[in-house]
Sequence to fold (125 residues):
Amino acid sequence: MFPTSSQSDGLNDMLQDPSLPTHYVDACRATQQLVLTTCVHLAPVDIRNNMTLPGRHTIILVQYTSGIKSRTYLDFESVNAAADGIVKMYKQKLKQLNTEARNITYDVSDLFNYMDSLHDLSGLV
Fold:
């Protein structure tokens, strides 16, 4: 049901790079799994049974705050790219909050806390 490394569309290959920080790899994999799980649960039953998620067009709907004007969407070519996009969203937020910091460290629980802090986050495949 979920993609394997043989079905990867690039994210899994990229995460094999030994120069990447472990916390980044962990956050990417956890986010990928979260997006996959959400998308599978939202998909109609007939699609769920035949899903091959790599290469599937994915739209992430985001509402950053309770204000309706904070709604936007992110468009991706695959579920893996969408997972990476969510991690990038979090990294951008970290950079905004820590403009003077040269190095910022985080772990997967920080990423999940950020995602939980968003007013709404949904994935469409």
